[in-house]
Amino acid sequence: MKLAAILMLQAVAVAVAQHCLSPSHCCGQAEVDGAGAQLSYGQPRALRPLSCNVSTTPGPGLRLPGPCHANPNGPLNARAIAPWDFWEDCDPARFPQRLLQARCRCRHCVSLRKPQRQDLGGNSMPVNVNLTVYYRQPCPGRTGAFYLEPRPYQVVVACVCLLAR
Question: Which residues form the signal peptide (predicted)?
């Protein structure tokens, strides 16, 4: 039910923003920002999360420094045998501007036996999904006019433990 509601909101948002999605259908800055917020969050611009600064965090493929162990009392990402943390991927020219990306903490899987160590028989691997994001682009020959260009964007959502090859 929840997925159906999300898909319905996305369909409505695309219909609302449809006129700003090509260079032949340019919009003003405020209209593009509003359409981008609708496409990103399914809600008016005034209710969307605050914008962010461009992230200086290294990309999601890098491992995090720090403890490589599972925490039985932590959230799902910390209890996994392929634990991960999140970092904020920010781009002011993209809608949504803020995306959370997972980053695997460990190169190998965490052993279920005490004391916890990395198990060289398994590799901690990222799980990727492709989202459609929208980038603000200037309209050719029209100062102050923009359109939103849809592009696929890969987001790491979690890490899993796979048998080593």
Answer: 1-17
What is the number of residues in the chain?
Answer: 165
CB 95 within 8 A of CB 89: no
DSSP three-state, residue 38 = helix
CB 82 within 8 A of CB 104: yes
Q: Which amino acid is at 34?
A: G
Architecture of the domain spanning 7-49+64-163: Ribbon (2.10)
- 155 CB burial (10 A radius; 0-12, 13-18, 19+): middle
52 and 92 in contact (C-beta within 8 Å)? yes
Q: Are 145 and 27 in contact (CB under 8 A)?
A: yes
Question: What pTM value is reported for the model?
Answer: 0.72
* 95: three-class secondary structure by DSSP: strand
Amino acid identity, position 62: L
The token duo for 83 is: 């634990």
- Domain definitions of the chain by residue range: 7-49+64-163
Mode of pairing for the β-strands spanning 145-163 and 27-28: antiparallel
